[in-house]
Amino acid sequence: MPTHEEHILRILGEATEPLFPSEITELLNHELRPGAAYMTTEVATRLQALEREVAQLPDGRWMLKRLLRRQSGGEGGDVAISVRAYCPGCKKMVTALPLLDNGDLKPALDSNADVRVMHIAPGGDHVWSLNDQEKGNLRNTIAKRSA
After folding, report:
1. CATH 1.10.10.10 segments of the chain
2. For every one of its 147 residues, what pLDDT tens digit does the chain have, with 9 covering 90 and above?
């Protein structure tokens, strides 16, 4: 079962533009069965806890950092880095995209920090953390691009 944070990251990943916390709340509640409602304050708190993966724009909207970098034409944002990884939701190998932007990815890998990835699946995006071997594969991919 996906965590609250994974639901939020998926919604931001599917969005075509940045979203206000109230819009994220509305989308989350639309997906849930009656009686299990998110509150905007809870969503805002969870967004702040995801500071490595999301960014708040000056107008209060939020988006994934990797998409923000890509939109602004920043370094490494022209082509997304992907990795082949085992998706626990699909129970098979898939091509996954890191939730960190390209500039934050290498330092996270160098410090062996948790690296979360996602891929689009028919029933909704799957989000999970890479294992050590998959992180090594991602390091190799980055090194080949830098060469």
Report:
1. 4-72
2. 678 888 899 888 888 788 889 899 988 888 776 666 788 888 888 998 888 888 888 778 888 887 765 554 454 444 567 788 999 988 998 888 888 877 788 899 999 999 998 887 666 678 899 999 999 999 988 887 776
| Tokens, residue 72 | 């602004």
The class that CATH gives domain 4-72 is mainly alpha
CA 35 to chain centre: 27
For residue 145, give the 3-state DSSP assignment: helix
Q: How far is CA 48 from CA 9, 31, 36, 119, 122, in A?
A: 12, 22, 22, 23, 28
Gap between the Cα atoms of 140 and 120, Å rounded = 23
Percent of the chain with pLDDT over 70: 84
78 touches 103 (CB < 8 A):
no
- The CA distances from residue 139 to 2, 132, 133, in Å, are 26, 10, 10
pTM of the model: 0.52
Helices (H), 88-131: 102-110
